[in-house]
Write a structure and sequence with these properties.
This protein has about 230 residues and is an alpha+beta fold. It has two domains: about 5-145, no CATH class; about 150-225, no CATH class. The protein has four helices and eleven strands, in the order αβββββββββββααα. Helix 2 (about 150-185) runs antiparallel to helix 4 and helix 3 crosses helix 4. The chain is globular and about 60 Å long.
Length: about 230
């Protein structure tokens, strides 16, 4: 094998494993989250993965953040990150790394047609860059950091989910599986039902078991004065 070819293979292998790139953090200076960018080469081309790190001494119960990451095109892709562990047993623990932007955003092969003719996209490999900003955080003890409007939205969504979970559990307790399925089929609950079905399959439990577990976690947090 020629030296140049060997070097190309080694570079490709290194990129597939991961090469760091700088992430521009636009968050307030006291944000407890830091970021690391890693370039990965997938079958579909370059993926700019942005990982976050919890530098706080507390678990993070909720996180809201935005990002703009490079693509093969001339524009950057806006990304919204929303995490809420209110209905789970634990949040994002101290020292934990978690993906703000993962490979999934880049895993689909682009195909654009104009008048039935395939238009060749730009080259799939490119230099990564990203800008990120943490908007809101709620800590395990219920204290908050960041934007008040984001906090209000988080609280409103929790109240809605609490009402939905209570409704589902009460439907099952009063009318069994038939009443539970009917509640899941209500028009305003179809999106929730879809997500719960996916979660229940992932955790290998029934949907009513999942509903009870999520409701119990939320009630426990409310009992501790966290909303």
């Amino acid at each position: 094998m020629k030296p140049a070819t060997l070097l190309t293979v080694l570079l490709a292998s290194a990129l597939a494993f991961g090469q760091r790139f700088d992430v521009s953090d636009l968050s307030a200076s006291d944000s407890p989250i830091s970021f690391t960018g890693t370039t990965r080469i997938l079958k579909t081309g370059t993926a700019c993965v942005v990982a976050a790190h919890n530098n706080s001494s507390q678990s993070l119960l909720a996180v809201r953040a935005t990002a703009e990451v490079a693509t093969r095109y001339t524009w950057d892709q806006p990304v919204e990150f929303r995490y809420d562990g209110f209905f789970k047993e634990s949040g994002i623990t101290p020292g934990l790394d978690f993906d703000l932007v993962d490979e999934g955003m880049y895993s689909v092969e682009d195909r654009t047609y104009v008048n039935g003719v395939l238009v060749e996209p730009p080259p799939p490999n490119f230099a990564c860059h990203a800008k990120v900003k943490v908007l809101f955080i709620q800590f395990q003890d219920g204290s908050n950091w960041g934007d008040y409007e984001e906090k209000k939205d988080v609280m409103a969504r929790r109240a809605k989910n609490m009402a939905i979970l209570t409704h589902l559990v009460e439907a099952y307790d009063s009318g069994g599986q038939t009443a539970f399925d009917a509640a899941l089929g209500e028009p305003e609950l179809k999106a929730k039902a879809f997500n719960m079905k996916y979660e229940a399959e992932y955790f290998k439990m029934t949907m009513i078991e999942l509903a009870r577990k999520r409701l119990a976690a939320g009630q426990k947090r409310q009992a501790a004065g966290i909303f």
